[in-house]
Amino acid sequence: xxxxxxxxxxxxxxxxxxxxxxxxxxxxxxxxxxxxxxxxxxxxxxxxxxxxxxxxxxxxxxxxxxxxxxxxxxxxxxxxxxxxxxxxxxxxxxxxxxxxxxxxxxxxxxxxxxxxxxxxxxxxxxxxxxxxxxxxxxxxxxxxxxxxxxxxxxxxxxxxxxxxxxxxxxxxxxxxxxxxxxxxxxxxxxxxxxxxxxxxxxxxxxxxxxxxxxxxxxxxxxxxxxxxxxxxxxxxxxxxxxxxxxxxxxxxxxxxxxxxxxxxxxxxxxxxxxxxxxxxxxxxxxxxxxxxxxxxxxxxxxxxxxxxxxxxxxxxxxxxxxxxxxxxxxxxxxxxxxxxxxxxxxxxxxxxxxxxxxxxxxxxxxxxxxxxxxxxxxxxxxxxxxxxxxxxxxxxxxxxxxxxxxxxxxxxxxxxxxx
Length: 419
Description:
The chain has helices at about 40-55, 95-110, 150, 165-180, 190-200, 215-220, 250-260, 280-285, 300-310, 325-330, 345-350, 360-375, 375-390, 395-415; strands at about 10, 20, 25-30, 60-65, 85, 115-120, 140-145, 185, 205-210, 235-240, 270-275, 295, 315, 335-340, 355. With about 425 residues, it is of the alpha/beta class. Helix 5 (about 190-200) links the parallel strand 8 and strand 9 (about 205-210). The model is unreliable at about 1-20 and about 415-419 (pLDDT under 50).
């Protein structure tokens, strides 16, 4: 689908406000993930853009993509008619980079008569790039805040030169400003509650829009030949994550160790997909079976799909999630899930997974063993997982975002009329 061309005019009063005759204009900021378009936020941004392009209602919108200097926009699969707005190369000094990014982004939005600006990723306050706090007049801002990890686990996003207290205070102030002057989208009811309780968000400006699994991932065919040869004739448990503290990696290793202790005849292995380089962590929590742990990085989409589809159990005992995309991916790829019963994970897993407290290693172990030992249960969980995952689809994601954009644009138009 192609996006239409714009029709716009100034109001003639010298206020720099743009009135639009036929088309509405939306700028989605892809500069917030310039280094990794394939991480969770990058995947969500790419999926949203593709889903918007598929909606007939989106024909009313001109789409712009805000990109960093020299950023490769190819992975985002922009619609053919989408226009790319380039930010200048940032300076190396952090303070100057923040100011420069905010200043040039405001200028881009104003000069191109953008009506709605959407930053679809978390903002790590006190570092660049960050969505502008104050928008040009006539531009409405939508920012997706996936979680409150900067408050709950501030060590996950360290900013040199600033203490945890300062970072947490800055995040709260930032969300409060967003809530007063724009719209916040978050991906779970749990995160919405956290934003209301801990970051002074406002319910009338907060919308919950769940994520969907990567289309390229869930449509990849099941190809066991892509598996590591060590996995082709044995059961294995799978974990996919970042290694951040909230992912509770010690529990993953301890559960695997207890599974092996309690059922040595299963000869099950553990596959961990992610940047896991702390050998001491493995030796502390899984010393006897460390040779049966396979760590994989840089896994391609088809290979990741094969890992999900052929795993016996997906284990995800996270302490806190804003959504928990790997759980949804596992369900969508027919992999039985054992995960935490905290934060957003009950929303994502529903009744398709086995949920336990993240600090209850014995309960997590028992749940994993139930799946490993009971083929009938495993088959039923695969079936329920597919049905549950089907509720999270990109069409619904795109339609919900268009609703937010329309609400944002109406508020701006009302403000212009009363100016």
